[in-house]
Amino acid sequence: MQFVRVIDTISEFSHVLDLARRDGRTIGFVPTMGYLHDGHLSLMRRSRNECDLSAVSIFVNPLQFAPEEDLASYPRDLPRDLQACEAVGVDVVFAPPVEEMYPEPTLTTVSVAELSERMEGAARPTHFAGVATVVAKLFNITGPCRAYFGEKDYQQLVVIRRMVKDLNQPVEVVGCPIVREPDGLAMSSRNVYLSDEERGAAIVIYRALQVGAAAIFAGERDATAVARLMADIIAAEPLAALDYAEVVDADDLRPITSLEPGSRVRLLAAAKVGAPRLLDNLGVEVPA
Ligand code: PAF
To answer: Which residue ranges form the domains of the chain, and what is each CATH number?
Structure first.
């Protein structure tokens, strides 16, 4: 039985990882905000399979929540998260208090222009600067590593990849497939907010993405028509308030109008279902 080591200071976490690297061990790092579900666990398992030492951070980052958002009520359960980490064989958990990460108000933020501005960025204008800033801090603290992120937050993944490239951070970003409930709902810590009725309605987002993808496979080449099709399906669900349904270039999130054969696109949608905003996306390679 292995016991996961829990660390709450930056200096100790950095030291443990430095020692491991000095011994020639590779580091896998999974940044999370806790309340772990199977999606997170899949990232940890991948890290375990690919790296010598796997570290997970559990930190609900205040910087990425706007004042009216759910920072105070964001679900938290550290004892349960530690058990889950231990069960999948994580070696080290970094769970710092807020004062450790932000001993004083941060004057320096990282913002990734353009990629952060549309979709989630339009709905949550300060969100991605908060994410990029904390992830940059976590990468500095962790040092050279492979860092695992879920494709569920696809725009976040693209933003982080670009930050790493622009800032020459010594991190290899690994995007991992979305893990879904048996009916297809993308796993998210915020699903816990859904009532039974809302939980039933929430599946409309994935259904809309599937219909969008099916239209492309059936020969639709007008991206605007695909986006409209997805939006109409979500808008028809009385418990869902559509935020956006988009078809974008999979690499740089550029909005596209025509679907070029052989190109890689991403269908993304977001809607409020009851209290939570839910996100989902699907990758499609346009048939030649
Ligand atoms: O995806 C998340 O859980 C968070 O945005 C992250 C990357 C851990 C930064 O706080």
So the answer is: 5-176 (3.40.50.620), 189-281 (3.30.1300.10)
